[in-house]
Design a protein that fits this description.
Elements lengths: L7 E4 L5 H12 L3 E5 L4 H9 L5 E4 L6 H15 L4 E4 L14 H29 L2 E6 L12 H20 L5 E8 L5 H14 L3 H12 L8 H12 L10 E4 L7
Parallel strand pairs: 1-2, 1-4, 2-3, 4-5, 5-6, 6-7
Bound molecules: nicotinamide-adenine-dinucleotide (NAD).
Length: 258
Amino acid sequence: MVNLHGKTALITGSTSGIGLGVAQVLAQAGANIVLNGFGDIDGARESIRALGAKVVHHPADMRRADEIEAMFALAREQCGGVDILVNNAGIQHVSPVEDFPVQKWDDIIAINLSSGFHTTRLALPSMRAANWGRIVNIASVHGLVGSAGKSAYVAAKHGLVGLTKVTALETAATGITCNAICPGFVLTPLVAAQIDTIAQRDGITADAAQARLLSDKQPSGQFVTPEQLGNLVLMLCSPFGDQVRGAAWAMDGGWTAQ
Ligand code: NAD
């Protein structure tokens, strides 16, 4: 069992999907949790509290450096700082490059990439002082390969894998590690929207659209789960993860083995 009692984990975009799943696994291991994100904040907070963990929420918009700074100030004040940082907040938009809405491009780069720079620069000083820290960037298979229609997302996720490598090198001789996890399809609201689009476009049921989405890319034919991803984050937070540095670790049902 990995024991995270006394540690504080801040997970961006953790009111839903993968972020909430990661927060629940880290809470089960004893960490204090700083939640972030929109939507069902009370439900997310309650699910962490039910696991016996201390939980606070900050609604910082990941597009805004000043709000990210305020979230770190709250984490310092309420929990004494951030030991484990999981950069997870992300959005998607699918459109050919020439039609890609400029505002969507800016938002995806800000949320999926630049927020990870801001959180990392704010987390590192106290991690260095403690000579321990874990930074886990939830990238994507799209940090390793491309897909048509996802220019901003693929650019941001490749950038996040690059930021991961540089952060890992700059902390290589310390007790701080930085790694990326690259999930394939996970059944969350982000992917449910893509399934709806396929169902409408091809005039098929949601079940058939789901099977089509998976069979196109993911050889296992099964979704990755937030719980599986949470347990990979947990391993990286454990002593077994001490020498995993700068990795882009795929958990993708075989997607990038092709
Ligand atoms: P989701 O839509 O279920 O959750 C996204 C979270 O981000 C929510 O908590 C939402 O409130 C938050 N969020 C959105 N915009 C925000 C903003 N401006 N500021 C702060 N928080 C914001 O999505 P998910 O599928 O759980 O995705 C989580 C991460 O995993 C993303 O980075 C995504 O790119 C990545 N990912 C997802 C999949 C997948 O198949 N679902 C695959 C690979 C990678």
